[in-house]
Amino acid sequence: MIEDLQKKIRDIPDFPKKGIVFKDITTLIKDGAAFQQVIDYFYEQFKNEQIDYVAAIESRGYIFGAPLAYKLGAGLVIIRKPGKLPAAVEKIEYDLEYGTDALEIHKDAIEAGKRVLVIDDLLATGGTVCAACQLLEKVGANVVAIAFMIELKDLNGALKLPRNAKLFSLFAY
Ligand code: AMP
């Protein structure tokens, strides 16, 4: 049951700073059956979308992006924090729920027009995933789907996302 899965996510108040309730997914992913179910839910959503690449956002996006790419038979593209990628990059700066940050992608990560599913663990204000989508568009990708394990609805992040992409979040708060 989806509700039983959701119960495995732990709330940590005032992390990483006062006023933020951090959704801790480590308590879900350490449960093998629960982790498998989460990936299977994602797979069911996207198995018919002809996804060429899963683009995962550092770092918790990788936890879900890698097994999902494997299951879909898609390539895995990593969107990283600055200074980590070795070849030529595109870079974008953006606002977070708590602070500012930047993301990078290899300029040659994706061939023009390829169908991409973007994945991260959680949608809060939408700043992170919006930046990721802009980076992907810069390198010529066609973002057709965006997936999260958790969506914090009150922050209205979904309003920032590209309208033409299929949005899926497993759990809403
Ligand atoms: P945002 O850019 O505001 O949508 O923030 C999303 C990013 O920040 C994701 O990569 C999350 O991992 C992280 N994040 C933001 N808020 C929380 C939260 N309340 N609990 C856990 N992670 C969060």
Instruction: Using the 3D structure, state the CATH architecture.
Output: 3-Layer(aba) Sandwich
Fraction of residues in helices? 25-40%
| Whole-number mean pLDDT | 96
Give the ligands present. adenosine monophosphate
Radius of gyration from CA coordinates: 15 Å
Kindly, what is the distance between the CA atoms of the first and last residues, rounded to a whole number of angstroms?
A: 17 Å
What would you call the shape? Answer: globular
Largest pleated sheet: 5 strands, parallel
Number of helices: 5
In the CATH hierarchy, the third-tier topology is known as: Rossmann fold
Could you say which structural class the secondary elements and strand pairing correspond to?
A: alpha/beta
Q: What attributes does this structure have?
A:
173 residues; alpha/beta; Rossmann fold; 5-stranded parallel sheet; two-stranded antiparallel ribbon; globular; binds adenosine monophosphate
